[in-house]
Amino acid sequence: MTKLREEEQRIMDHLGDLGIHVQVNLDSMELPLAGSDAQSFGLALIRCLSQKSAMNRSRLLELAGLDTVNSTRAITICTNKIHQAIVFEKFGVPQPHFKIAFTPAKLFAALQAYGDLCVIKPATSSWGRGIARITGKDCLEGWIAARESVDPGHQSFPVLVQEYVEKGDYDIRVVIVGRTPIVAFRRVSTENWKTNTHLGADIELLTMNDEILAICERLVDVLGEGIYGADLFFDYKHLRYVVCEVNQNPEFAKSWKIHGVDVASHIAHYVRDVLGRENRVNCTTKS
Ligand SMILES: Nc1ncnc2c1ncn2[C@@H]1O[C@H](COP(=O)(O)OP(=O)(O)O)[C@@H](O)[C@H]1O
Ligand SMILES: [Mg+2]
């Protein structure tokens, strides 16, 4: 983990209650990779804030012989919006129509294809950062010009271009632990088309219907079981649910106090299940 936030503390408390010994390894510390060091752990639960750190660390731990939650493959896909789009297309996960633009010039064709309204996303970002709604050619020219001044070599390409989904004033966050969608809530914002809670959206508990459950099952089939925050839209134009993105390290410190589902407890129980399933001998129990 990067630091011991409320989320991590709660997970640790629950793991402790289940008799599971936890050793904290901060991003600033050495990773226990050498043979016997690595072998003395049952499982690595990755809780890094930086997507890059999460990926690098899970990869090294996996190479050293440890199982990680989430898997390196899942983290690699989830930390890159372009990877996600490609994988979801391959496996038929419903998502907004998209194009991958490798040059600024290609953005104009994409904008036109989506009726002069689209969303541009950097491949790696979170908390709504760098996500731009483009409302016409002038707007796109402004976006390109602003970018050119800081990135004249277009190093930040390719970018993901999506159709703008008429989603009302909310999106839907589903928290998945293991294979199970444990809670869903609407993130509602009347002020901002970006409905990240980080940007001030309100949380409203939502009962999951069969369509949402089916999408989550499909996501777990594609990504493997793990801990995910899946962001869905209900597309009011095409009357269907689509996946906006899947996060590999969902935050829950604020939201669980509103919806009341103890995500940390679900994570701790899932970790116990995985350890038990694989019949690990290194998981030290108190009792
Ligand atoms: N194609 C889209 N159509 C409409 N709204 C979108 C679209 N893509 C993203 N948004 C809005 O922007 C927010 C942030 O986009 P997202 O892809 O989830 O990036 P981040 O990783 O920064 O959360 C979403 O929660 C949603 O409210
Ligand atoms: Mg998001």
Q: What sort of overall outline do the alpha carbons produce when their principal axes are compared?
A: globular
What is the CA-based Rg, rounded? 20 Å
* Number of helices in the DSSP assignment: 10
Helical fraction equals 25-40%
Spans of 5+ residues with little confidence (pLDDT < 50)?
A: 281-287
Question: What's the CATH architecture of the domain at 170-260?
Answer: 2-Layer Sandwich
Classify the fold: give the CATH topology of the domain at 170-260.
Answer: D-amino Acid Aminotransferase, Chain A, domain 1
Bound ligands, named by name, code or SMILES: adenosine-5'-diphosphate, magnesium ion
For the largest beta-sheet, the strand count, sense and barrel status come to:
5 strands, antiparallel
Walk me through the structure.
The protein is of the alpha+beta class and 287 residues long. Among the domains are: 97-163, 2-Layer Sandwich (Dna Ligase, domain 1); 170-260, D-amino Acid Aminotransferase, Chain A, domain 1 (2-Layer Sandwich). 37% of the residues lie in helices and 21% in strands. The chain is built from ten helices and eleven strands. It has helices at residues 6-17, 35-39, 51-63, 72-78, 81-90, 104-113, 137-150, 210-223, 255-259, 263-277; strands spanning 44-45, 68-69, 98-101, 118-121, 132-134, 159-163, 170-178, 180-188, 202-206, 226-235, 240-247. It has a five-stranded antiparallel beta sheet. Helix 1 (6-17) crosses helix 10. The longest helix has 15 residues, at 263-277. The protein is globular and about 60 Å long. Residues 281-287 have low confidence and may be disordered. Magnesium ion (MG) is lined by residues 196, 231, 245.
